[in-house]
Amino acid sequence: MERVDTIVIGAGQAGLAASYFLTQCGREHLVLERGEVGETWRSQRWDGFFLNTPNWFLQLPGGAYDGDDPDAFAPLAEVIEYLEGYARSFAAPLRENVEVTALRPAGGDYLVETAGETLSATNVIVASGAFQQPRPRVSGVDYAPVELQLTTSDYRRPGQLPEGAVLVVGGGQSGCQISDELLAAGRSVYLSAGNCAWFPRRHRGHDWVHWVVKAGILDDTVDSLPGPAARLGCNPPISGNDGGHDCHPRWLAARGAVVVGRLESVRDGAAHFASGIEETLTAGDQFAYSVIARIDDYIAEHGLEAGAPEERESLPSPIPDTGRIDLRDAGITTILWSNGYRPDYSWIELEVADEFGWPVQKRGVSEHPGLYFVGVNWLHKRKSALFGGVGEDAEHVISHLVAR
Question: From the CB of residue 312, how many other CB atoms can be counted at a distance below 10 Å?
Answer without folding.
Answer: 9
